[in-house]
Amino acid sequence: MSPAESGKPRPDLGDAVAAPYWEAARRGELALPRCDACGLVFAYPRRFCPGCWCGERTWQTMGGGGRLWSFTEVHVAFYDDTWAGDVPYVVAVVELDEGPRLLANLIDSDPARLRIGARVRVTFVDRDENLTLPAFKLAP
Amino acid sequence: MSVLDDIAVVGVAETEIGKLPGRSAIQLQAEAAVAAVADAGLAKADIDAVFSFSGYSQAMMLHAARVAEYLGLRPELAVVTDVGGPGTHHAALLNAAAAIDAGMCTAALCAYGENGISIRRAGRGRAPGTLTGGEDFEAPYGQIAMITGYALFAQRHMHLYGTTSEQLGAVAVASRHHASLNDNAHKRHPITLADHQASPMISSPLRRLDCSLISDAGGAFVVTSVDRARALGRPFARVLGYGAAVTHHIPSQAPDLDSLGGPTAAARAFERAGLRGADADAVYIHDACTFSVVAGVEALGLCGPGEGGPYAASGALGLGSAHPVNLHGGMLSHGHAGGVFHLLDAVRQLRGAAGRRQVEGAEVAVVHGNGGVFSAFSTMVLGREDP
Ligand SMILES: [Zn+2]
To answer: What's the gap in Å between B307 CA and the centre of ligand 1?
Structure first.
C-alpha cells in the first residue's frame, strides 16, 4: 500500500451495522439493508430505517445497475498530495434501479461520454487487503 | 410576537481580509469583536454573552469560552452555534433573542473568523480524517471538499435546466465588480467573463473563478434589545422574519434540486416577515460557489425554478438593479471566513453605511444560503429601524 493510499479516508470496518456492506463488497456484491417493517431499501446502512425507525433489516443483494444522477470530474488534489496520483478522478452519484442513491467513483469510463441518466453498472476496487470499494462504470 | 421581534443588530466589524500570517484565528475573532462592540457604541463591560463558531479550518471545542477568556469576559452564556453557512450566525441571533427574553443577557457579542490561508501554509491544514456516519460511504471516494459536492448539483442543474458555465461566470463577474467597490475585499481587480472561462477546471463544471475564496479574516456583530438599540441613537437592523430547513448532510442523501431546503427556508422567513423576495433592497446569498447564487435567486423567488442562470446573466445581480446580490463581493471575491460577512454587509446597507456600494434608502435586506452541500438552509429578513 503506497503512502497516498494509506492516507486516504477509510470507513470503519468494525462498525457492526455497516459490516455486512463491506463484507459483501469483498465478495464482489453490492448489498443494502431492506427494512423489515416498511420495505424501504436504504443507503447508507445505519442503525434505524430512515423511513420508519424500525431497527430490523434484511440484507439484500442489489442487481448492480443504475443511472448516473450526477457526476463531477475532480482536477485538483485537495488539502495535500493524498489524491495527487488520482486526479482527474470522477465522483458520481448513482441512482440504483432499486431506488437508493450512492456516491462512488466512476472508473474505466470515457469522461466525454458521461451524461446524466446514462446506464451504469457496479464494479469493485480493492483499495487494500481489507477494503474493497464499490464503484461504477458506464454500461456497455 | 416572537422573541426575534425584540432584538437589534447594533454593531458590526470585520478585520483586514486576505493572507494575514502571524494572526491566529482567535486573534482575528478578537480584533473583529472589539471593533464590533465599539461600532455598537458599547464597551467591554456591557457584553454579557458570547456566541461564536471557530470555523472549519481550525475547529475547536468550547470555542465561545475560548473567545470569552481571550477577551477577559466572564459572561453568563458562551455558546457555540454550528448550523453551517449563514445559519450559524442566524442561530446565534436566535439564541441571543431567547437569552435576552429570558433575562440571561442584555448585549451579546457574536464572533467568527478563520485563518484559512495561513494555517494551511503552516502545514497544519485539515486533512481527511475521522469519519462519522454517512461520510464513511463518501469520503473514501475523494468526496473530501465541499466544492465537489456543489459541482454535482451544478452539473445536474445544467442537465435539467440548460444552465451554462457562462451564466455561472456572470455571478463571478458581478461579485468581483461589487468587491471592486469595497476597499476591504480580498480580491478587488475586476474580472471578465473571458477570465472566468479561461480559469482552470477545479471540479467540473466548476472552474477556479466559480469557487469561493479561502481567507484569513474575522467578523463580528453585537446584538441587544430594541429598547437598548434605540438608546444608542443610531440606525440599526431588526429581524423581520427567519426561516430554516434541513434536508441532509452529505450529497448522496440530498433530495433532488426541486426539493432542496432553500425555497422552504425562504418561504418560512418571508411568511413570518409578511414580505417576499421582491421586497428585498439588498440580497445576500452564501456563495460557496457561483452556482449557490443561481440556486439562491430561485429559492428567494426572484426568478422561477431553473431560471437562475438566465437571471444571473441578465445583469440582475449588480448594484443598480432592483435586488442586487452580495454587494460586499461575497465569498467569491470579498472573503470567506465562514460567511459572516453577508450578514455584516446587510446590516451596513440598512444603516446606510455601505459606502460606494450603498443601495440608496435600503429598508429590507435578505441573508440566505446553506451550510454543508445544500444541506442546512437559513433565510433571515432584516429591516432598517431608526432610533
Ligand atoms: Zn422502515
So the answer is: 37
